[in-house]
Amino acid sequence: MPRTKWGNKAKRQDTLAYPHLPCKDKFQSNQIRDSTMSVNEHRPQPAEKKFESLEYTDEHSRTFVFGDEDHTLGNSLRHVLMGRKETRFCGYSVPHPSEPKMNIRLQTSATKPALQVLKDGLHEMVEICDLFDFTLDRAISDYEEQQADSTDERGIH
């Protein structure tokens, strides 16, 4: 059996910690446990709603809730929205890692309502992702051509 860096023997992962006790929790059972999850991982339940706009009296100040999203979308969307001239304030938060949602708070000038600015920002993010995809594909093909040319010059087939 392998030893850990502290010298004691590591427990085999396919055995229960207390094999003499009856298994009361489904995650303690070897037959049911997901072998890809570590001890500290968790899988939150999916969000009830994928998108929600919390109502306010002013259409230029809104909080939007995105279900099953986290900092990846939150920070990039906040960055894009802050670059828009109609945006006065934009911030995001993930209330808790076990809650599958991300909140965006958006305040806009009187020229456009917050929902329209959000839609425009999301369209701009799609354009940025398309440009990134195109640039990456071109860089990969240029690299592959360069590798093929260098292989041909050395006479390797």
TrEMBL record:
The keyword Transcription applies. GO terms for molecular function: DNA-directed RNA polymerase activity; protein dimerization activity. One of its GO terms (biological process) is transcription by RNA polymerase III. It comes from the Eukaryota. CDD domains: RNAP_I_III_AC19 (cd07029). One of its GO terms (cellular component) is RNA polymerase III complex. Residues 63-132 form the DNA-directed RNA polymerase RBP11-like dimerisation domain. InterPro entries: RBP11-like, RBP11-like_dimer, RNAP_AC19, Rpo11-like. It holds the Pfam family RNA_pol_L_2. Keywords: DNA-directed RNA polymerase, Transcription. Belongs to the archaeal Rpo11/eukaryotic RPB11/RPC19 RNA polymerase subunit family. This is Dna-directed rna polymerases i and iii subunit rpac2. It comes from Nannochloropsis gaditana.
